[in-house]
Specification:
Oligomer: single chain
Helix content: 40-55%
Radius of gyration: 16 Å
Order of helices and strands: HEHHHEEEHEHHEHH
Number of domains: 1
CATH architecture: 3-Layer(aba) Sandwich
Strand order of the largest sheet: 2-1-5-6
Number of helices: 9
């Protein structure tokens, strides 16, 4: 995995970009999300922001556990910050996932659970097997186990979504924590 990680870093460096990810061939889980935000891009540490703190809380893990590649790999749809758009960050470039995800997944030894965070990751991995809405897809997480566990993005921008869907914090997050604990 080290050789592949170095190839990814070099590929993006040659294009003047910074790839932000974490890979371990023995990982029990793979966090798949859209793309690093500006703060994460600047620090080079995945999920090193408010969204990351919320995600670690939902997972029920410490920072040390989360940043241990034997437990968690972090593989965004787009490995680098896509830039700012008129309504937030630009969407991830899915060609990055097309290029790198199959190579990364082929090196994984433990058939890790893919934790799909947000619409872009869910669209990429669940495709036509999604329900009629993001909320219904997330609520139906059991339909996608043991391969995947779909989640909304833990962004502070999703506070209204969380208020409108109280079952997420009351039912889905406890089930996620139980799944994580059972494999750690």
């Amino acid at each position: 995995m080290k050789e592949l990680s170095e190839k990814i870093i070099q590929y993006y460096r040659e294009r003047g970009k910074r790839a932000v990810f974490q890979l371990g061939e023995d990982s029990k889980f793979i966090i798949i999300s859209q793309a690093p935000g500006k703060k994460v891009h600047d620090t080079g540490t995945p999920w090193n922001d408010m969204s990351g703190r919320t995600l670690r809380s939902w997972l029920g893990v410490t920072d040390d556990q989360f940043y241990n590649p034997r437990l968690f790999s972090i593989m965004p749809v787009d490995f680098c910050y896509p830039g700012k758009g008129p309504h937030g960050d630009l969407p991830p470039d899915k060609s990055c996932a097309d290029t790198w995800h199959p190579k990364i997944l082929a090196k994984m030894k433990n058939n890790p659970v893919k934790i799909l965070i947000g619409k872009y990751a869910i669209d990429y991995y669940l495709g036509t097997s999604q329900k009629e809405s993001l909320a219904n897809t997330v609520r139906s997480y059991k339909d996608y186990l043991p391969a995947c566990f779909p989640l909304i993005h833990p962004s502070p921008r999703n506070k209204k979504w969380l208020t409108d869907h109280p079952w997420f914090l009351n039912e889905t997050v406890p089930a996620l924590k139980q799944l994580i604990a059972s494999r750690l």
